[in-house]
UniProtKB/TrEMBL annotation:
This is Diacylglyceryl-N,N,N-trimethylhomoserine synthesis. It comes from Raphidocelis subcapitata. It comes from the Eukaryota. Gene3D superfamilies: Vaccinia Virus protein VP39.
Length: 680
C-alpha cells in the first residue's frame, strides 16, 4: 500500500546474474567456509530466542566480518535493483535514501564484491543524496557498517541500529527505499512495508530484491514444481529466512541464479521496483496480460518492418482520435504511425521476440540520447551496449524482454541487421554474392548516383541479362535450382517470414516462386533508388542505414517527437491478432490477412472458417468509417469477399500485374476496406 492507502505499482524486473569466481585465495575460502559453517550448523547448537534482534545477533555476530564478502557471490539481484532505481532518479538531487536491513553496506572490496551504498555510487554520485540511512537490527553488522562508513569518509551516510518496522527518516520522507535481501528476514514484513511506504515520497521509489519461491498456483513465468518449492523453502527456513510467496505475490516476476557451493541447483530471486499508482500503470497491466504463445523460434524473424509505410499513410489519413492496431514485425511502422498522428497505436505479434525488439526500441527512444539510438538501430552496432543496457535500458523493460536481450547483446557487436531469420538470410546472400564475384556489382548498385545510373548497373549485370534474355530452357533450369536451394518453403518461412499458407496463395495464382522473387527484385531496382529512397533493401545489402535513408523514427526530427511524448501512446502486446482486436474498439487498422495470425485452436479450422471468424471480429470492433488495410501474396485473396459480406466496402488499390507497387514490392495486391454505417 502506498501513502494514504494507495497501491504501489509493480513496475519492472531485471536481468539475472549467474557469474561468480572460484578463483579465490585460501583466505577467502576460509572466510566462506566459516560463513557456511554458521549458516548450516550454528542453529543446531544454539537455543533460539523469541526476540528477533537476539536471533539476528546470534546468527550474524560470529560471521559479521566475513559475511559481506561471502554474500556478494550470490546476491545477484542487488545490482539490477540499484540500476533500475538509479535510472529513474538520475536527474534528481537532494534526495533521501533509506536502506532497510542494510547490514554492512559500504565494504571497500573490488567489484563485484560491493555493497549497496558503494554500488549505488557507481550509478549516482553520493553527493546527490542529502542523506543516506542504513537501518539494521543486528548490532554486530551495524558496528561493521559504521567502521566502513568512517573509512570511506562519507559524512551523509548514517548507520542506524533499529527496527525497520519503526524507523522514520528525520526528514519525514524518503526518495528511495530499498530492501536488499532483508525482507525475507523480517517476520512482520507487512509492518515493514507499510512503515516504509508511509513515509515514501509521492514521487519516490520502493525497490526490493530477495530470494523467493512461487505459490502453488502462480503465473507461468514464476511457477515452480512442488519439489523445488519444498527444497528451497526448507533450506532457507533453517536460518529463519522465509522466502514464501506471500512477500512477493504482488511483485511482477522473478530471476534465477546459482548459489555458492551448490553449483547444480538454482535459488530463484526477484527484483521489484514500485511507485504510487498512476495512469502509466494501466497500460503496463494490459501489456503483461497476454501470455506469449509457445513454439516460436528463439529469436525474431524481422529486424525491420517489411511493408512500405508511405502508401499506408496516404490511405489511412490518421488523426489524433484514431486508435490503430498493427502487427509488430520490426516495429518501425508502429513508430511511424505515431509520427503520423495516431492517438494510440497497439502493436501485437505472436512471436514474443518481435515484441522484445520493439520494447528495446521504445526504451531506447525514451531514455537514450539520439546518438546512442542511432548507433543501436541506425548502424546496428554499439561499442558500449552492455553498460547502456544495464543502466539505461534494462530497468525499463518487461521481464520477457530482459530475458531475451540479456543473452543477445552480442547482436549489437556483430551487427543487429545480420541477426534473426531475415538477417541471417541477408548475410548468406551477401556471402554468396561475394563468393561468385558479384560483390563489386552490389557496391556499384548501391553507389549509383541516381535512379537512371542504378538501372544501367542493374541491367548490365550478367546474371540479370541472363535471366531476362538468356535461352528459355537454361533460364527455367536456373530458376528451378534457385527455387530448390534458396526459395523453398523452409528458407522463405524462417528467413523471409513467408508462412506456408502465404506461399500457397502465390502458387494458386500460377506464379512460380522464382518468378515472384524476380518480379520483386526487378521492380525495386528499376523504380526505387536504393541509396537515397529505399532504406529497407539498402539495409539488407549493407547491414546498416544512412542518416538520410532510414525509417522515420531514426531521423533526428522523428526521434525528437517520439521522445517528446509520442512514444507514450504505444502499447506492445505479445499474443494473437484476434485476441488484441477484441480488446478495444478501433478506427484504423493494419490487418494481417495472410492467415498467419488467425486464432489457433487445438484443431485448426478450414481457412474459410478462420477468415470468416476474423471478418466477423472486424465487424464488431471497427467503428463505422474505420479503415482496414492489408497486403496479400494473392492477386485476388479469397477472404476479401468475406470481409465485404461482414459490412465493409472493399476495394483493391494495387495489383502486381499493373506494375511496380511500392519500395518493398513483395506483395501481389494491396486492399482497403471501410466499415459501413451499421444503420445503412
Amino acid at each position: 500500500m502506498g501513502r494514504g492507502g494507495e497501491k504501489v505499482m509493480p513496475e519492472v524486473t531485471l536481468v539475472r546474474r549467474n557469474s561468480w569466481s572460484f578463483g579465490k585465495g585460501l583466505s577467502d575460502l576460509k572466510d566462506d567456509l566459516s560463513t557456511l559453517r554458521h549458516l548450516w550448523f550454528s542453529q543446531l547448537s544454539k537455543k533460539k530466542s523469541e526476540d528477533h534482534a537476539t536471533r539476528l545477533e546470534q546468527f550474524y555476530g560470529p560471521q559479521a566480518a566475513a559475511y559481506d564478502k561471502f554474500r556478494s557471490n550470490f546476491l545477484w539481484g542487488r545490482r539490477p535493483m540499484l540500476a533500475a532505481a538509479a535510472a529513474r532518479l538520475r536527474d534528481r538531487s537532494d534526495m533521501v535514501y533509506v536502506d532497510l536491513g542494510g547490514g554492512t553496506p559500504p565494504t571497500p572490496l573490488p567489484p563485484p564484491q560491493k555493497e549497496n551504498i558503494d554500488m549505488m555510487s557507481e550509478y549516482i554520485p553520493l553527493d546527490r543524496f542529502k542523506a543516506v540511512y542504513v537501518v539494521d537490527l543486528c548490532h554486530s553488522l551495524c558496528e561493521q557498517a559504521k567502521a566502513k562508513v568512517a573509512a570511506k569518509g562519507w559524512t551523509n551516510v548514517h548507520v542506524v541500529e533499529g527496527d525497520a518496522c519503526a524507523f522514520t527518516p528525520p526528514e519525514g520522507e524518503a526518495t528511495l527505499v530499498t530492501f536488499s535481501y532483508s525482507l525475507s528476514m523480517i517476520p512482520p514484513f507487512i509492518d515493514a512495508i507499510d512503515n516504509a511506504v508511509s513515509w515514501l515520497a509521492p514521487d519516490g521509489l520502493l525497490a526490493v530484491s530477495d530470494f523467493f519461491v512461487s505459490a502453488r498456483y502462480d503465473v507461468p513465468m514464476r511457477q515452480m514444481t512442488w519439489a523445488r518449492r519444498f527444497f528451497w523453502r526448507s533450506v532457507f527456513d533453517i536460518d529463519n529466512i522465509d522466502i514464501g510467496p506471500e512477500r512477493r505475490q504482488y511483485l511482477e516476476t522473478k530471476l534465477e541464479g546459482s548459489i555458492p557451493y551448490v553449483p547444480y541447483l538454482r535459488a530463484p530471486f526477484y527484483v521489484w521496483i514500485g511507485r504510487p499508482w498512476g495512469d502509466a500503470a494501466k497500460q503496463l497491466v494490459h501489456e503483461q496480460r497476454v501470455e506469449a504463445p509457445p513454439l516460436f523460434p528463439p529469436t525474431f524473424l524481422y529486424t525491420q518492418s517489411w511493408e512500405d509505410p508511405e502508401p499506408d499513410m496516404e490511405v489511412m489519413d490518421i488523426n489524433p482520435t484514431d486508435t490503430v492496431l498493427t502487427l509488430t514485425s520490426g516495429g518501425c511502422n508502429a513508430l511511424n504511425l505515431l509520427l503520423h498522428g495516431a492517438g494510440r497505436v497497439v502493436s501485437v505479434d505472436c512471436n514474443p521476440a518481435q515484441s522484445s525488439l520493439l520494447e528495446l526500441k521504445r526504451a531506447a527512444i525514451r531514455h537514450l540520447p539520439y546518438d546512442d539510438v542511432w548507433k543501436m538501430f541506425g548502424e546496428g552496432r554499439h561499442p558500449d551496449i552492455e553498460r547502456v543496457f544495464e543502466r539505461q535500458l534494462a530497468p525499463f523493460l518487461s521481464q520477457k524482454a530482459i530475458d531475451f536481450w540479456s543473452t543477445r547483446l552480442w547482436y549489437f557487436q556483430k551487427g543487429l541487421y545480420y541477426q534473426g531469420g531475415m538477417g541471417k538470410l541477408c548475410w548468406v546472400l551477401q556471402t554468396l554474392a561475394t563468393a561468385v564475384g558479384l560483390g563489386g556489382a552490389v557496391r556499384r548498385l548501391l553507389g549509383a548516383r541516381d535512379l537512371e545510373e542504378q538501372r544501367r548497373v542493374w541491367n548490365g549485370l550478367a546474371l540479370v541479362r541472363f535471366v531476362k534474355h538468356g535461352p528459355q530452357l537454361l533460364v527455367w533450369l536456373f530458376g528451378r535450382l534457385l527455387a530448390l536451394l534458396l526459395f523453398n518453403r523452409l528458407v522463405l518461412w524462417f528467413g523471409g517470414g513467408v508462412p506456408c499458407k502465404q506461399y500457397k496463395l502465390i502458387v494458386d495464382d500460377g506464379v512460380p516462386i522464382e518468378h515472384y522473387i524476380g518480379r520483386t527484385m526487378d521492380g525495386v531496382a528499376e523504380n526505387s533508388h536504393l541509396a537515397t529512397r529505399n532504406y529497407a533493401y539498402f539495409s539488407c545489402l549493407t547491414g546498416t542505414f544512412t542518416r538520410d535513408n532510414c525509417p522515420s523514427y531514426l531521423t533526428p526530427e522523428g526521434f525528437a517527437r517520439l521522445q517528446g511524448g509520442l512514444i507514450d501512446r504505444l502499447t506492445i502486446s505479445s499474443g494473437f491478432f484476434q485476441d488484441e482486436l477484441a480488446a478495444r474498439i478501433y478506427s484504423c487498422r493494419k490487418c494481417p490477412l495472410r492467415q498467419r495470425n488467425a486464432p489457433k485452436p487445438a484443431r485448426p479450422p478450414p481457412d474459410e472458417d478462420a477468415a470468416a471468424s476474423l471478418a466477423a471480429a472486424l465487424a464488431r470492433q471497427v467503428r463505422p468509417g474505420g479503415i482496414v488495410i492489408w497486403r496479400s501474396a494473392s492477386l485476388r485473396p479469397p477472404y476479401a469477399k468475406q470481409i465485404a459480406a461482414a459490412g465493409f466496402d472493399v476495394r483493391c488499390l494495387q495489383r502486381a500485374t499493373d506494375g511496380y507497387m511500392d519500395r518493398i514490392n513483395m506483395y501481389s495486391s494491396f486492399y482497403m476496406a471501410v466499415r459501413k454505417d451499421k444503420r445503412a
